[in-house]
Amino acid sequence: MALEEFQPDVIAIELPEESKSLIPLIDEKSIIPPVAFLFYNATNPDHSLYLPLAVFSPEYQAILYARRNKVPMLCMDLPASASLLHSNFKNDTEIDLNKKQRSITRDPMAYLAKQDGYSDSERWWESHFEQWPDDIGLFEFVDGLMSELRKQSMGRDDEETLIREQFMRSQIRLLFKKNYKKIAVICGAWHGPVLNKEYIAETNDEMIKPLQSVEIKTCIIPWTYKNISLENGYSAGIISPVWHEALFENARSASSTFLVRALQLLRKEGMDLSPSSAIDAELLANNMALLRDLPSPGIEELLESAVCVFGKGITETIDWLKEKILCGEVTGQIELKSQHLPFVKSFHASLKYLRLSRFWKDGHQEELDLDLRKENHLLISQFLHFTQLIEINWASGRTSEVNALGNFHEYWRFHWQPDLEIYLIRIALYGNSFKEATQKYIQKKLTAPTEIYRIAQYLEHSLKAGFEELLPVLSQKLSGIILQNPDVVQLSTMIRPLMSALEYGSIHQTNLGFIKKVLDELIPKLVISYPESIRFVDYNKSKQLMQALLVIQLYFDKNRNTETGDLSDLWKTQLHQMAQDELSHPLLKGKIWNLLLERKWISMESFLQAFHLQFSLHSDIPKAAHWFEGFLYHQSAFYLMHPDIVHCLDTWLLSLDELHFKDHLPLLRRVFDQISAGERQRIFSLIANQQKTKQSKLFWYLDTQIVQKLDGILDRTKTITNY
């Protein structure tokens, strides 16, 4: 390590000045990297700055060295309180630079890599410098490269960078005044030429312009290798943190270490790989390095060999494989006593009290059945609904249901991911308690465009979390949407979460006035608007409107014994009118006839008359098929066993000529595929009996003539199974 060779008297490190309060918390026993220093605006938490530290980060190793050897440290970078105010850096200090010079200042390493024929700066750096044996010599060489680039860019940069460098020089001057002789400066390579002793002496009279500042708070948070990776959008990241960790541990055995860890991870994911696969992959990587005239394999060779050997060249697995191998599942850890965010402490304390900690730290899916008659289960439910409000994607619940015995259950599935630790921190910036953070989070969501069903879900989860303070705000928001939004499909997505909340509130004797008010505004608008919305629509739109139809009907089915009489009668009248409307889409008309028949709102005779009309000899084939598809949608095929229906379908199908039949066969197959296997078997039994009296040829036709028309592609057994 270069620091051990140099033996500095003091270390100046490129970290915001406020980091000095965080450095004492870096302890090898209580913190496992990667972690990040977090600086955030105390009054506007969205304005924040994250500085990740991995075990191989120069800053992290410098901090450990200083603590172990009792070497004083100076955090020399511009305070985050000034950096977080973008108004401090309004001037365009690069206005005179050409395109080439701007590309240098934006990313000097990428510029050098491009000049050397590389498309990837990370690959270029790795090929030339990553395994350089002489640390001091490497520093001097890289410093020379950066000096030349800064000459070519005329010493210009963006205003923030220039001010930061001025501030860092002023801090180093303070160290000179304290008579430190050996000062180690830990900074990015680009800053090196303007932070050396000679340059600092040349600029001794420079003045830093006055800067405004804001109140900030700081803490250390867990981080992940996935967040450090360039592949995941972190601009200062690297391609593979796992590879850099292996290089840091032992450059000579880095290849085998990387591949063995990749193998272990993939086996944990269920891939059937033998230990010898790692040996084969390393051999392939070494051979590729020889072919490319490289001294040793780099991440590109290792990744290609891993994909080839571990993934067996299967294209579908390559992207998934790359992410797993490059980033792993490494998440940092810190002790809660080191964590300065009360929300995070409270969250983990709740996990422990409710005995949910095992679900939080397990990367595999697990399920939990809650009986809300039990006090502890009710507390768990309320906590989980809080997590739903703030959209912590850890627990997902199925719809609550009440069985005949009156037991009220919730079923939850958990799937923890490492990134959730970081998401917790982001939510913690909204407030110290569950209610404070949730309220501010929801208020922010409501100021931006939000999907209607999501707002309805917020209302449901607020009720189930016992957070009734949010109900008036959410109800008012939904009421405004109902008045202004004419889209039936969007509005209908509100019904299920509102009904679920209503059902929940009834059982737990909660104030339901807010929800009833929203439903009283929503349902009449849908009932009145729906008939017009299904006219002159295409097939794709009709599929969306099908969901709206079903959920509106579900509302009336569940409220048969409540005060919805007039509205229910209006809906019934609307269904009759839509069933007869020639301008309504046939998919929806078929389903409407099914709803009317199932609820005995029409007679079988009326239905058979409509059915014969749809499947007359001169009917439009796609139109009839869509009508039948709608009729069968999510329903039993019981009515198909009626002899008149079987005969009607039989006559219609036999009337189709061969050309039309082939053209519309995919549509017909999709329609008939909705019939369940059990129903098919019963229908075939019925037809087998009918065949003896030659009353019907419908399914016998599907069994034989389709085979003939498809040139024997299907045999009789497969055809019966499919139809």
Q: Please work out how many helical segments DSSP would assign.
A: 35
Rg measurement, Å: 34 Å
Unreliable sequence segments: 231-235, 400-407, 692-723
Q: What's the number of domains?
A: 5
Number of strands: 12
Mean pLDDT: 82
Give the termini distance in whole angstroms.
72 Å
Largest sheet: 4 strands, antiparallel
Coarse morphology: elongated
Computed structural class: alpha+beta
Give the DSSP E fraction (strand runs of 2 or more residues).
5-15%
What proportion of the residues is helical, as a percent range? 55-70%
Question: What brief labels describe this structure?
Answer:
723 residues; alpha+beta; 5 domains; 4-stranded antiparallel beta sheet; 3-stranded parallel beta sheet; 35 helices; 12 strands; disordered C terminus
List the helices and strands and how they pair.
Blueprint: H1 2-6, E1 10-16, E2 31-32, E3 35-41, E4 48-53, H2 58-69, E5 73-77, H3 80-83, H4 99-106, H5 108-115, H6 121-128, H7 135-152, H8 159-177, E6 183-186, H9 197-202, E7 216-222, H10 225-228, H11 241-249, H12 254-268, H13 276-291, H14 299-309, H15 315-327, E8 333-334, H16 342-353, H17 357-360, E9 366-371, H18 375-389, E10 395-397, E11 401-402, E12 408-414, H19 419-428, H20 434-447, H21 452-464, H22 471-484, H23 488-492, H24 495-507, H25 513-533, H26 539-558, H27 565-580, H28 586-598, H29 604-614, H30 621-632, H31 643-655, H32 658-672, H33 677-693, H34 698-709, H35 716-722
Parallel strand pairs: 1-5, 1-6
Antiparallel strand pairs: 2-8, 3-4, 3-7, 9-12, 10-12, 11-12
